[in-house]
Amino acid sequence: MSESKSGVTDDASEGILPLVRILYLRKRLVFGLAIVSGLSAGGVSLLLPESFTTTATLYPAKQSEPQGLSNLLSLGEKVGLGGMQAKDPIDILADIVKTSTFLRGIAGKQYYSSRLGGFSNLLEIYRIKGETPELRDYYLIQTLQKRINFSTDKHSGVLYIDVTAPEAKLSKDLADTLILYLNNYYRKLVSSKKTSYREFLEQRVGEAEATLRESENQLRSFKEKNSLASTAPELMLLQLRFQRNIRIDEELFLTLRKEFEMAKLEEHKDMAAVDVLDAPELPLFKTTPQKRKIVMFFSFMGLLAGSVLAFALEKRKDIIALYRAVSSRPA
């Protein structure tokens, strides 16, 4: 048994030692190619554009149901997102921020650029080129959509927003503007909806009050005309009908009046779309290019290529002989 194990070990060492010997003899080629690959990759990485990423942690603001969800759905429809009734509010917020309507509001602001030495628009900061303003706007929106990414935790309901920009401060400013604009946009839309709802209720309260007064006047007029014959069965039945109508109109009026007062209170509430759990911070490190990883990867690839080339050069006679044997073989 020991002899068998020893035989296997000897065979393995006999197979490995020639390979090690070839690498040692061709060490200049192997390590030289690795060094050249690493240095070349490092040089190229210096020319690659830098990018910085900041992350904000958000949570959808608590709102009453179903009004809170309906507000989110209306906000989505406002910016061109239809068919969202089955979606989660977190997904709705993520979809809204990626829409062209929303991103144009962010793109319309001025941002500080250290490269330009002052405040400028995103077209100049991102060096967007195009023959027409519409085409430049399209390219800018596409750029922002690629640089704003979302991830959600379905269990906790937390929304993570990653904003990538060519400058550290710009990434933070974009994330801050995104959150601010989302809340302001939401407040503006919800305020408009609340005002419309309050005005609708105010009109309905007036109509219900007028209907109630009319029913009361009808009953009073009936009693004044039929006070002496109130015991007649038909008159008693007619009086009951008038009283029933008054009760119905009164209940409708009180319900609408209560809703109207609630709507006036809700109209003055300040509602945000999201609560900020972790505000975006100034990135300390670059996201790309990751020069160390690039150099290590290409150095390894150079080492691998050098090893393959070393074996090929060492065995070139055998390879040539094999090629000639295959070529001379009759078809």
Describe what you observe in this structure.
The protein has 331 residues and is α+β, with helices and mostly antiparallel strands. The chain has 2 domains: 2-47 and 289-328, no CATH class; 52-278, Bacterial polysaccharide co-polymerase-like (2-Layer Sandwich). It is 67% helix and 10% strand. It has helices spanning 2-25, 27-47, 67-78, 89-97, 100-107, 122-125, 133-147, 168-225, 233-267, 291-314, 316-328, and strands at 52-60, 111-113, 118-120, 148-153, 158-165, 274-278. The strands form 2 sheets. Strands 4-5-1-6 form a 4-stranded antiparallel sheet. Strands 2-3 form a two-stranded antiparallel sheet. Strand 4 and strand 5 form a beta hairpin. Helix 5 (100-107) crosses helix 7 (133-147). The longest helix is centred in the middle third of the chain and has 58 residues, at 168-225. The relative contact order is 0.15.
